[in-house]
Structure formats: C-alpha cells, structure tokens
Amino acid sequence: MNHPELRIYVAGHRGLVGSAIVRTLRARGQATIVTRTHAELELTDQAAVRAFFRTERIDQVYLAAARVGGIHANSTYPAEFIYDNLMVQSNVVHEAWRAGVKRLLFLGSSCIYPRLAQQPIREDYLMDGALEPTNEPYAVAKIAGIKLCESYNRQYGTDFRSVMPTNLYGPGDNYHPQNSHVIPALVRRFHDAKAGGAGEVVIWGSGKPMREFMYVDDMAAASVHVMNLAPDAYAASTEPMHSHINVGTGLDVSIHDLAHLVRDIVGFEGRIAFDASKPDGTPRKLLDVSKLRALGWSASTPLREGLRRAYAAFLAAQVANVAA
Questions:
Q1: Tell me: the pLDDT tens digits for 35-58?
Q2: By its UniProt entry, which PANTHER family does this protein fall under (predicted)?
Q3: CATH of domain 7-323
Q4: Which of 1, 65, 151, 304 shows its CA 20 to 30 Å from the CA of 210?
Q5: Dist. CA 199–CA 43, nearest whole Å
C-alpha cells in the first residue's frame, strides 16, 4: 500500500540493504524518504539521534544501519562489531519511542541462531544453543536488537518489528578484499584474477558449508511487505513473543558450488583451490521461511540471475570509480 504522506526514515541508506529499501520505496511512490549520511548524523551519539527525531517528525523507521562484514572482519574487529551495533540500535529504538514513531522495522541477521541449529532454522530456535564463535559479538548485538523491540512493545505498546534476513548480496555491496561477505569477496577475487591473468583463485575453507543467499532487492521488498502488514497480522505471526520473522529464499548451496557459479559468471577460466586450513564458519545455515510465505511473500530472484545482476553492478561501479 502506498502512503505518500508518511515520513519514513531509512537508517543506513547508503548500505547494501538500506539503499535497496530506498529503491523499493521510491519505486512504489513513497514521496517523503528521510536519510542522513554518517557525517550528517552519528547514530552512536544519543544526543544527536534525539535531536534528529525531535525535529524530523518521523512516522516509520527502517533500521538498516549496522557495522557488517565477513569472517575476517568479525574476527579482527570484535569490539567495534558489538559496541557500534549495540549503540546504534539502542539509540534509534529508544529515541524513536520517545518521539512517538508509529512503526519501526529492525533488520537483524541469520547469525543470531545457534551454530548447530536444526535445519531449516525456525524463529523459535533463537537462544537455543551456542553461537558461531567467529561472529558472536555481532550476533549478540543483533539478538539485543530483537529484544529491544520486544521489550518496548511489551512495556510501551509500540509497534516495533524485526526481520532476520539470510545472507544478502547485490548492488551496493562491500567488495573489500578482506572485510567483505562471501559473494562480494568471490566476485572481487575472480574479477581481479581474470584481469591479472592469474591461473588460480584460493578460497577460504573446505567449500563444504551450505549457505542461503538472497538478492538484496528481494529483501527490501520483503521488508516493506512486513512493515505494511496490519498490526494484528504481524502479531499473530510472531506469537507468543511479538518477536521476529525470517526472510530468505528457502534454498541453499554449498560454497564449492557457489564459487564455481561465480567463476562462470565473471568469466575466470583458471582453477579454484580450497584452503581447508582456514575456518569454515557454521556448517549450514538455512532459514525456515514458512511464516513469511504464510504472510503472502516469497523471494522471486534465482541465484544465477541475482549474481549476474550483482556482477553487472560491480562492473558499473568500477567504471564510475575510474571516471571519477
């Protein structure tokens, strides 16, 4: 449903998810989208966040701002990953409540679930076992975000919702050689290897772990869908805790097969070697998305097509960077 009169704040609008949410809202005719860059609004600064909400008269918030990264980044900067995410979430949720924001959507991560959770992972498996050590600080912060929304709903009667996306990729991704997630890391390595005429690309881990991947514009569409659900429909789907909803495709692929698929799309003709001395992370991570499907939404972008679009966006960004 289109509500052009609403003032919607997208926190983290320059990131992978936030930029996709902005694209989706604009495509649906949402006229008043409020954004702030990191330089304009430091979300770890409570006074600055309070002043923002006091003056901007926000109706809805998409909380997509977060410090994110892959295994290497999480292992190298655990303090930043837990501190920054806790502070951003706490400030935005609390000040949104103080300002009377009607509805908020918190975007978490599937890493909130136990490392050895039964597959596919249902929402009620949360806090039912030990987390994956390589990203535990980030996961703890995201669990705290869910509990923030739950707690404010219980105590103050707010309508703060949470969605837990699977692994995302697409336009606006971070292609840093060390600090990126698996798909952008693979795209960057194969692209650089092709450009440099390398004969081999080495991939961290055994290639055996199974992962689920969703094209980010599908995630954005799901987020808008969940945000616009009637309160009764959302509450009924998340009973008894008025908690969170998984967002994924319901399909997974091995890192081995993913690497070969990305290699084919990039056009690298060399060998792939897997370095089993490096950590694999969680053995398998597939979300149960039956709640989301029951609410009338399913992903629509096949993995190969999504990867093709992602690589095209990467190439366009490379050209733009050279031109700049």
A1: 999 999 999 999 999 999 999 999
A2: GDP-L-FUCOSE SYNTHASE
A3: 3.40.50.720
A4: 65
A5: 44
